[in-house]
């Protein structure tokens, strides 16, 4: 039983990229999720829903069946996962992990439809959260999430400023415009719709200040806004770039160790290739790193400083 | 008396994160500010104001009372603050510091309402500036302000260019459009509303050029604009990233000193943890820095270059 | 024959910047492409088409003739190109290369017009793809494409998130608004038009939520959107900056080798100049790199550490 | 005569920050330019023009008089400027320099008004170019221009892509929409107005696609657009950050030299302060650089590696 469980765990692990069955399962699930999401989207178009109701229902039924089996299987094998294995209640910890909750959310609406008397339309749309199941298969996506966690404090500072600006912008616009346009700037919450559209530079234009004071204030808000609103994005992008740089350094470290004995044998080659894929680096970048290292090594052997390529003299 | 003052100072200091009473006071004030700001916002909605007038008034009264006590207390203990202690007139310097002025601004509208005969609505909205009181409690926020001060010259250069572009864009659009749309582009100040919306890429669309010349010029302004308008944000984000890097270097420096004797004892551990929190770094980043340092140390002891991991040979 | 082919290859190569004939051919083709694209654009204006039909037709005829000759010539000489020379079927590999496909696309619409019975207007507009022929002549453009390839994984993660957000935003807005505005938010695909305009911060304003729930959700989408939508751009820009830095390092490496013997002779000077132009670096930057290197060299000869300028002491 | 010329040159030089007369002249000119630009802007408002015509005329007359004298004076003393002194025709080179042309443009409209019979309104607005005279006084502004020149190749690649995208986006939208909205998408030049608004994310909303095909294509354009349009800005911001970093390194180099003898005397202190101001660095950053250097120095003297603070062992 334990051996079977271990085997199933390996097949379901999205990181097992060398196993053909595992890769096939991944691909099948990715396609199924994509088809499913597309079906839910198209179902909301009345004409399509009327004509293809049966096919859409079939897709839904098959999907829920597969996802249910997947959920049960993952729950069964989660005790093999090193992240949960050593915890006191591995199955419960797994069930409360983000990915497991997303998996549950993907099948729950279907079963709820039978039990609870709810707005069916709402339940149907809830199925779109299945799109989040795709995050399991994107290594770059998980890197982004890591960066997000790392730079979280700077990130939230940006959002905090955004909220403060939102409150101040809305109150200023309310003061300037509420008498001229009581329907659009009649209260601060109403004015917030305008403030949001301006600070994020979306600028729908359905609500705009018309008084000179309102327009002057609006201009100020827009100018300050572009600086502040782009901040979280800038921090995230810069953090992402930093992370990529560190990832490259990590690969370089491994390479160095592999090069210790002067040659990279086939086993080391495979290991490095796996690492490269894990880190989500392109082949080109990996080759560049390796070339630099080899150059450094030669320089050191020739008695040159590996940093600057000049002979190290000792007087 | 002086001992009591010192004790109160410690309780009010938002950096005292190990004292439970201090943390409770901080939390209470943060919640009160948030509730208060929400109340002021909702008060401008006529329906809510009519129904919950009494509760809103109660929130206001309690808030002003608490904020008044807080202001008096902070003014009393400010002579304990190292930033003001050594100045010739510590209390006056404190009263003129940005945070104290914000604290004053938070209670002034209420008292002014009794004394001066002013537009009450204006006074009420002024209370929203209380949201700025929150800045005291955000360490990341203060980092942002520091970056802002550091990169100020580059920042203002960006804004200066924005103003120059605004003037030139408005005058060009005025020339091209003032005869066809005298109501919208009748003067340069009027055209500035369009220029601002275009340069910041907000693009409300309430005012747009309609002549071919105006649209050609508008396109040019928009294309140049996206480059210029995003500049301050880019500089700020890049400065923030740079700052984070330097902050990490600072922590590494401290770590190195703690590691001097080969081990990190409990006291040093606590000190480093405090520093990490002060610098606003995530635990993950701190651990990464420490691991790198330990690796370097081992390498040095093994006679390897700490920079490149290769043996340092002396011929 | 082979000698002629080699000569023609050299004349057509956009990298041969020291040959006057080659440069003249490049310039002629660039101007022809630009004139041609302009002609196609103006042809769609009814008034211009009616008046200048003959001239426009002449431009088209001459262009197609020249481009056809160019295509044939390039196909003939491609066996001289080191990228295709050593392949088993060099001509076929060349024909399937992106640049050759673009070249084919530039002449195909004209010939197709005679053969197939198609919507002529569509064929005409297709000619605008000729603008892509210009990419051959922009060295900076190819650098951008390289960066794009390098950072591809981070880039696609950004786009993947954008699509997930698009689906979630559209479904949320559909739920909140489809009963009030069935014409604009009647289905999720319809709501996607709004979601796209909001997440990219374009914000046309032709479709906007009007219910409080829709506006609240819309605000959330806009705030999250600015962070996510700017991500690919930020990654690309940061990658571009990184690439420029590495390019400079490459030039520095070459310089160092040239400086090995202490002087840079005329041949080395020419070589470095060629390299600089290849790398797309400005003269100013190149001079800065050289100055730094020379300073380092002097320092090393004076027994100073090239990294910090202080004497290297050996005790 | 030559001595007087030299004295006037020094007074007019905006970099002479230690001379009180020179500073007073700078300030006077800056205020005059600002007042003048404001006057020109307000003059286009009919109500203000009618009421304050005399004052506005006076401002104009005084400004032109001062600017004329300034232009003549600068032309006279330009032979003292090291940038023009050594050229064969220093006065002509100066007259053709950007700053001199801007100075000429600032007075020309006034004199042209007497000579040529032109649209007066156009001439008046032309006076707004006087705002460019301010660039002489902003050191950060000149740094931005330098960065612009350095990253020019990457920058123009970004703009080239923008133009290619503009052409392709406009032609696609023209194909999809010209039959449904012939007034808005009737020709490619007309469709370019929409394409520009979308690619720059301005999104006025006066022109939007309405067909499903047009909206699908529009969404694609918007998504690709945000990546591309932000590119020039990102490159510029990243280049600016890089420049700031190099500027700091330059200051560090100077500091190191000043520290060679172990102390910084008053003359060196003044020199460093001048350099810091020239480089546009904040005091805080300068102090940080100095502290790091002093720490390094102490470490070296104690026989520690200046890079990692650990003892340099020689076995």
What does this structure look like?
Four copies of one chain form a homotetramer. The first copy, chain A, is mainly α and 315 residues long. Chain A folds into two domains: 3-137, Voltage-gated potassium channels. Chain C (Four Helix Bundle (Hemerythrin (Met), subunit A), Up-down Bundle), CATH 1.20.120.350; 139-281, Helix Hairpins. Helix content of chain A is 74%, strand content 0%. Chain A has 13 helices and no strands. Chain A has helices at 2-12, 20-43, 46-77, 82-85, 90-95, 98-115, 120-126, 139-150, 152-177, 188-199, 212-259, 266-279, 283-301. Chain A is flat, with a radius of gyration of 28 Å. The mean pLDDT of chain A is 80.
Ordered list of secondary-structure elements with their pairings:
Four copies of one chain form a homotetramer.
Chain A lengths: L1 H11 L7 H24 L2 H32 L4 H4 L4 H6 L2 H18 L4 H7 L12 H12 L1 H26 L10 H12 L12 H48 L6 H14 L3 H19 L14
Helix pairs in contact in A: 1-3, 2-3, 3-6, 6-7, 8-11, 9-10, 9-11, 11-12, 11-13
Keywords (chains A, B, C, D): Ion channel, Ion transport, Membrane, Potassium, Potassium channel, Potassium transport, Transmembrane, Transmembrane helix, Transport, Voltage-gated channel
InterPro entries (chains A, B, C, D): Ion_trans_dom, VG_K_chnl, Volt_channel_dom_sf
GO cellular component, one term (chains A, B, C, D): voltage-gated potassium channel complex
């Amino acid at each position: 039983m334990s051996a079977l469980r271990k085997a199933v765990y390996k097949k379901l692990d999205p990181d097992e990229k060398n196993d053909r069955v595992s890769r096939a399962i991944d691909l099948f699930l990715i396609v199924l999720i994509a088809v499913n999401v597309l079906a839910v989207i198209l179902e909301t178009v009345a004409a399509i829903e009327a004509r293809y109701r049966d096919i859409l229902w079939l897709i839904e039924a098959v999907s829920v069946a597969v996802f249910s089996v997947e959920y049960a299987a993952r729950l069964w094998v989660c005790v093999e996962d090193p992240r949960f294995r050593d915890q006191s209640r591995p199955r419960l910890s797994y069930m409360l992990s983000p990915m497991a909750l997303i998996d549950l959310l993907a099948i729950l609406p279907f079963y709820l439809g039978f039990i609870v008397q709810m707005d069916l339309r709402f339940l149907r749309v809830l199925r779109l959260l299945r799109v989040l199941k795709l995050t399991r298969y994107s290594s770059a996506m998980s890197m982004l999430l890591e960066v997000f966690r790392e730079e979280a404090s700077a990130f939230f500072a940006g959002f905090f400023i955004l909220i403060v600006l939102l409150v101040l912008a809305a109150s200023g616009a309310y003061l300037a415009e509420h008498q001229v346009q009581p329907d659009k700037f009649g209260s601060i919450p109403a004015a917030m719709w305008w403030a949001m559209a301006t600070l994020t530079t979306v600028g729908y234009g359905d609500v705009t200040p018309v008084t000179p004071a309102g327009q002057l204030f609006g201009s100020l808000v827009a100018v300050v806004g572009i600086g502040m609103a782009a901040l979280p994005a800038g921090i995230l992008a810069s953090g992402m770039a930093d992370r990529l740089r560190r990832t490259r350094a990590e690969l370089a470290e491994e390479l160095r160790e592999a090069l210790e004995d002067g040659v990279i044998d086939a086993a080391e080659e495979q290991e490095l290739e796996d690492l490269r894929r894990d880190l989500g680096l392109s082949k080109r970048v990996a080759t560049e790193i390796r070339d630099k290292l080899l150059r450094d090594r030669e320089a050191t052997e020739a008695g040159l400083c590996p940093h600057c390529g000049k002979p190290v003299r000792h007087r």
